[in-house]
Design a protein that fits this description.
single chain; 323 residues; mainly alpha; Farnesyl Diphosphate Synthase; two-stranded antiparallel ribbon; 1% strand; globular
């Protein structure tokens, strides 16, 4: 599998600058925020979302080079993503993220919630300073979608009647909205045509859906060490994802275990066995591959460049995480 970081070679220097800028932007002014910023932005991570913004910026500004506003958009994108993770970890009571302690496990829930709020507010402030109303609307929509996705997921816990359409809608809100709207925003800052802006949005949307479906598969197929959290966490908490929904169509006996919320000893283990014994994971892989293929198709009109090549390879990389 190609490491994600090697796909980002056209924007490698940009991403290094982004990591340093984020620690400065967030940490200045308060020791707790400074410590949280160092923890959040100094801990590595793939930086896929800002990398997409920077790759699209370079792919659409071949003659001119990217502007400070493109760079700031990439930073805003990572701030929004990180703020959502800080809040998600509080909601999920997660002690680890990517194998390292979460903000709330280090500083407590109160500080974690306020740190997430601060990141959202700061992202909004920097967003307003881009002086582009269309971009402000796109990224403001993302912040609303992220909250809507969390609410939707909470309301649908252990709901075996959940449709695949509702699952994909929730996956859009929780993950793909940031991919899609930040991709389109990068194109708008480059003053691309309206049709190209829509293609960039659709690239991000399908890539984000593929990314989330793959994450949901890995919850069943990866070890706890690889995931940085216990395997089967989503199912245990009642979050029914693509592998489960496909398995439910094939194995109705799964219904009973989920609807009683794994109340009896061995219920969760039995459910995991049923899912692994079904076509659920295989069908979910096909669904992820379908969305990755659609993402690539939306890059057809982008001029040939190393950055365009990286965007195509990124869609392949998302699927390769399964193998």
């Amino acid at each position: 599998m190609t490491p994600a970081t090697s796909l980002f070679s056209p924007v490698e220097a940009d991403l290094r600058m982004l990591a340093e800028n984020l620690k400065q932007l967030v940490g200045n002014g308060h020791p707790i925020l400074s410590a949280a910023a160092e923890h959040l932005f100094g801990s590595g991570g793939k930086r896929i979302r800002p990398a997409i913004v920077l790759l699209i910026s370079r792919a659409t500004m071949l003659e001119r080079g990217i502007s400070q506003r493109h760079r700031r958009l990439a930073e805003i994108t990572e701030m929004i993503h990180t703020a959502s993770l800080v809040h998600d970890d509080v909601v999920d009571e997660a002690e680890l993220r990517r194998g390292i302690p979460t903000v709330h496990s280090l500083f407590g829930n109160r500080i974690a919630i306020l740190a997430g709020d601060f990141l959202f507010a700061q992202a909004s402030w920097y967003l307003a300073n881009l002086d582009n109303l269309e971009v402000v609307k796109l990224l403001s929509q993302v912040i609303m979608d992220l909250a809507a996705g969390e609410i939707q997921q909470g309301l649908n816990r252990f709901d075996t009647s959940l449709s695949m359409e509702a699952y994909l809608e929730k996956s859009y809100y929780k993950t793909a909205t940031l991919f899609a709207n930040s991709a389109k925003a990068a194109g708008i800052l480059s003053e691309v045509s309206p049709s190209m802006a829509e293609h960039l949005y659709d690239y991000g949307r399908h890539l984000g859906l593929a990314f989330q479906i793959v994450d949901d598969i890995l919850d069943f197929t990866s070890s706890a060490d690889t995931l940085g959290k216990p395997a089967g966490s989503d199912l245990r908490s009642g979050n029914l994802t693509a592998p489960v929904l496909f398995a439910l169509e094939e194995k109705p006996c799964l219904d009973v275990l989920i609807e009683r919320e794994f109340a009896q000893a061995g219920d969760l283990e039995q459910a995991l066995e049923i899912i692994n014994d079904s076509q659920g994971i295989s069908k979910a892989r096909d669904l992820a591959a379908h969305h990755a293929k659609l993402a690539i198709e939306h890059l057809a009109d982008l001029p040939v460049s190393d950055s365009r090549y990286s965007l195509i390879n990124l869609a392949d990389y998302v699927i390769s995480r399964l193998y």
